[in-house]
Amino acid sequence: MTRTLRRAFTLIELLTVMAISAILLSLIIIPLFQSFNLTRTAQAFSDAQENARVVTDRIAREIGGAVSVRNTGGLVNTTLNGAARQVPQHATVIRLPGLDGGPRELVIPYAKLDLVLAAEGDPTRVNGAYVNPITGAADPTLQAPRGQVNLPVGPGQTMVRYFVALRDPFTPYTNPYLDLRKNNTNAYWIAPNAARDNLYLLYRAEIQPMIYRPRRGSDDPSTIALRPNLQFFESDAATDTQIIGLDDPRFMIPEFDGAGNAITTGDQAQRIQNWRRRSVVQTEVSRYDMIQPVYNRANRQMTFEANGDPRVLSLVQFRPSRVNSDPVEGQVAVRPGEESDFGAAIAPDVFVGQYPLWSNAIIRTFPQGWTRRSATANEYLVGRGDPTTQRYGIFAYDPNAAPDDTQAGTPLFDVTAYERIIATGGLYPFTGAILAVDTSWLNNERMRQIFTPYTYNSGKGTITASFSISEVGRTFVAPDNLPSVLTNPAGEPAYSPDQDPDVTGNFYEAKFSTVNRRFNKVWRDNPQMQPDNVHRFIDLRVVRNRDNTPSPLYPNPLAGEATGFQLPTDAPNGNRSKVNIVPGSEVVTGPDQTAAPDGAGNVPYVRYTRVTGREPGPNQYTINYTDLPEPRGSSAPGSSVDYSVLGYLTPAQLAGFNPQVYDPQNFVSAVVQPRYKVGYLRFNSDANIPMPTGEIKVSYRFQFTGNQTGPRNALSGNVTDRFSVDYDTRQLMAVLLTIRNYPQANVPNPQSVTLKATAAVRNYSR
Asked: Which one of 117, 438, 678, 728 is least enclosed by Cβ atoms within 10 Å?
C-alpha cells in the first residue's frame, strides 16, 4: 500500500514537473515563434521598401533618358466582357473572379507606359541588315541600330513599355495568401490554397514597333520597307504599313474557347508569348501583387460593383503631371527689320506653353474686351475634347447661361475635323471645320466678335491661331484655290489712264474689276486726287478665292459664310476687323513689270517684294497686315471718323458713306477707306506705267488674334486675346508605385510600401 502511494505521488510529481515545463516552454517558445513572425514581417516590409525604391528609381532614370512619352490620353475601341467599349489608351485589361464566381474583365487605368528611346548607332543597312558596332559586320538579327546615341537627340525605332500583367496570362489569377469572402457566409471570393501563386506583376519590354521586312506573305526583297512588327502587333491588310493594336488594352489577354479555357495557339497566343520573352519582370514573381482588392478588414468581405465586378486598385500608375491655367506665351509677331504700319496692333498667332507633350488639354480663350464682371462682355471660348466621340472642338461659353464650361457651350469650330482633312489630304480644312458644326452661329454677331479659331500641337505644346487662305473653299479648283485678280481684261493691252478708250459708267461695274481699268477710271474721274491719292490696289477683303468662296477678311456677314468678323463697334472709332494677316506670310506673284513682252505680248511671272515707308515701285507692293487708324476730325480722344479731313473727297462722294459698313458701290467705302483696312495691297501707281497684262495671285495666312488699340479695359486690363490652358504634360511623369508583399501564409494582411517619383523627359525637342 505504502509502495503504491509512493508511486502515485511520484507520478503526480512527474506530471507536475511536466506541466510546469510545458508552461515554461510555452512562455518561451510561443514568443520566440511570434518574434520570428515579426521578423519575417519586418523583413518583408524592408524588402518591399527596397524593391519599390529600386523600381521607381529605374523607371525615373529611363524616363529622363527617353526622347518622348507616347500620348495615351485618348480612347481606344475594344471589347470588355463580350461587349464593345471604349477605354483609355493608358489602361490595360485584367481578369478576376466576379461575384458569381465567373471571370470578369476589368479596366485598370494608367497601368501602361510607352517610352520612345533616342536614336542610336548607324541607321545605314548593309545587305538589308544593320551593322553590329561590336563586330563591325552586318547582323541580320538586329532589328534596330545599336551604338552610341546620335546627336542631336532624336526619336529612334525602339520603344520601352512598362505594363501590368499576370505571371502566366494563360491561367487564372491565383493568390494563395488571400482569405476574402463574397459576403457574410463562408462563400469565398479568394480562398487560401496551396497552389502556386499567379499574381499580377510589373513588366518591362523593349521592342521595335516597326521593322524592315518584306510585305506580309511575300519574299520579294523589293517589298522590304519599314513595316509593323508582327511579333507584337497586327498590320493593316491593305498596305501592310499601319500598326493595328498599338494601344490595345487586351494585348496580354488570350482568346478563350467556349468552355472558358485560354487558347494557347494562334496569333494572339504567339504575340503574348513574344511579349513575355522580350519582357523583364520588375517585381518579384512570387508573393508580390500589383493589384489590391478593396475589402472590409473587419469581416474580410470583398467589395463588388453593382454589376458584380470586384473592386480593385492598380498599384502602379504612370500619370502625366497636371498643369492648370498655364498662360501660354505669345511669340514675337514681327521680327526687327520687318517693319509694318501700325505694328502695335499686330498680335502673335503662335502661343507656346510652359511644357510640351499635352494630354487632355482644355484651352480657354479670353477675347479682346473680355470682362468677368460684365454680363454682356464675359463670354469666352473653351476648347475641349469629347471623351465619347474623341473629337476636339471650340465652344463659345456664356457664364450667365451655364455654370460649367467643360459641359456647356455653342460649338463653333471642329479642330478634329480640321486635322483629319489635313491628314487625309482633303480640301479646305478651315471651311470644313466650320461646316462640321451647326453653322447657325454665323448669324450671331456676338459669336463672330469672339470667334478665335486655332489648332494646337499637343507634342510641342503650341497653339496656332492662323490659317492659310488656301484652306478656305467649298469646290475643287485646279491648280489652286487662291484669290487672284487680272491686271487687264483678257485680250486687252495694258492701258494707261490717258490711253484707256472706255472709262464711262460707274467704277463698280464689272468692266472696271481689273487693277489697271479701275485705276484708270478713278484717275480720269477724280483729277483732284491726282497723282498721289490714286492707287493701283487689291482689297484682299473682297477678293474671293477661285471657287467664289469669300475670304474671312470680308467685313460684312454673308449668309452661311465665315465672314463679318468685326470687333464690337466703338462708335467714334468705327469698326475694326477681328481678322488680320500674319506678317510676312503673304506671297504675291504677278507679271514682271520690268521685262519686255515676247512676240505674243506675254511677260514672265515673278514674286513681288514688300516695301515699307515709301511708294512701291515696279514688282513691289505695300500691304496692311491690320487696320490702320482712320482719318478723324480732331486728335482729341473720342473724336469720330471723318473722311472729309482728307480734303480731296467731294460732298457727293461723302454722302451716304457709313464708315462702319462696307458698301461696294460707295466710292469712299470701296476705293478710299480700304487703304486703312487690313488686306490693302498697293502696287506701283505711276500713271504712265500700267501693269503688264496678266494675273496677280496672292497667298497669305490670316489670324483671329489681335491687340486692342483703344484704352485699357478698366476692369480686367485686357488689351489682347489671351489663352489659358489646363493640360497633363507627359514631359513630367509621376510614377506612383505600391509594393504589396505577402510575407507568409499565416499573416493575412500584406506589407505595403508606396513610393512616388517624378521624372522629366529631358531629351524632348520642341
From this structure: 438
What is the rounded CA–CA span in Å between residue 626 and residue 349? 13
Q: Is residue 108 part of a domain?
A: no
Q: Is the dihedral of CA 607, 612, 616, 617 positive or negative?
A: negative
Beta-sheet strand order (sheet of 580-581): 466-468, 701-703, 580-581
Query: What's the CA gap between 276 and 163, in Å, rounded?
Result: 11
Cα–Cα nearest to 300, from 752, 748, 751, 750: 748
Whether the Cβ atoms of residue 622 and residue 634 lie closer than 8 Å to each other: no
Helix (H, G, I), strand (E, B) or coil at 499: coil
pLDDT value at residue 716: 40
- Distance (Å, rounded) from C-alpha 470 to C-alpha 484? 12
Q: How much is the pLDDT for 207?
A: 95
- Answer whether residue 272 is part of any domain: no
Predicted pLDDT at 41: 59
Chain-centre distance for alpha carbon 681: 35
User: Which pLDDT score, from 0 to 100, does residue 717 have?
Assistant: 43
Q: Residue 143's pLDDT is what?
A: 85
pLDDT at 25: 59
For residues 624 and 679, the answer to whether their CB atoms sit within 8 Å is: yes
Cα separation values, 719 from 285, 368, 704, 710, Å: 61, 6, 14, 8
- Whether residue 255 is contained in a domain is answered as no
Q: Residue 26's pLDDT is what?
A: 59
Global pTM value: 0.84
Which residue reads 473653351 in cell numbers?
382
Within a domain: 545 = no
User: Can you spell out the DSSP letters for 287-338?
Assistant: SEESEEE-EETTTTEEPB-TTSPBPEEESEEEEEEEEEEE-PEEPPSS-TT-
| CA 384, 390, 393, 396 torsion-angle sign | negative
Task: Classify strands 609-610 and 620-623 as parallel, antiparallel or unpaired.
Answer: parallel
Whole-angstrom CA distances from 517 to 174, 495, 539, 675, 689 are 88, 8, 15, 18, 13
Low-confidence ranges of the chain (pLDDT < 50): 32-33, 571, 710-718
Per the structure, the count of domains in the chain is 1
The whole domain housing 451 covers: 323-474+709-731
pLDDT at residue 21 in the model: 67
pLDDT confidence of residue 338: 64
